[in-house]
TrEMBL record:
Gene: ytxJ
One Pfam match: BrxC
Protein name: Thioredoxin family protein
InterPro entries listed in its UniProt record: BrxC, Thioredoxin-like_sf
């Protein structure tokens, strides 16, 4: 029962924040007007957006697997986390701004103000981010 409880737990923000303190530093996306800043940052380093539904067991599993293997140089990658349930309007703004269909979980990589990669579910990998470093 413990395995299923962990995989399909509906505890939201408290557990999500504790997961975010792993080896990487995540910035929360909470407002659509943050997108212009993300575009500017993407001119200097990769911007990674992870969109996550905190009530979805599959999304939680992908998030945990991603977190466990994330190891990016801070000076080359900026990480942003979006809680879809709390900030759906931000997800809608991302879809409109970057012309990427909304999915969950979803990973979006920006470089020079453009989407260079996006993936969802099991296609979300740390290696996809590494492939865009130093290019």
């Amino acid at each position: 029962m413990g395995l299923f409880k962990n995989l399909f737990s509906t505890k939201s923000e408290t557990n999500e924040n504790s997961n975010q303190s792993n080896a990487t530093n995540w910035f929360k996306l909470t407002k659509a007007d943050q997108l212009s800043s993300l575009k500017q940052i993407s001119n200097k380093k990769l911007v990674v957006i992870f969109k996550h539904s905190t009530r979805c067991g599959i999304s939680r599993m992908v998030w945990n697997q991603f977190q466990a293997s994330a190891d990016f140089p801070k000076d080359e990658v900026e990480l942003f986390y979006l809680d879809l349930l709390s900030y759906r309007e931000v997800s809608d703004a991302i879809a409109q701004e970057f012309q990427v269909l909304h999915q969950s979980p979803q990973l979006i990589i920006l470089k020079h103000e453009e989407v260079v990669h996006h993936a969802s579910h099991s296609a979300i990998t740390v290696s996809s981010i590494h492939s865009f470093l130093n290019n």
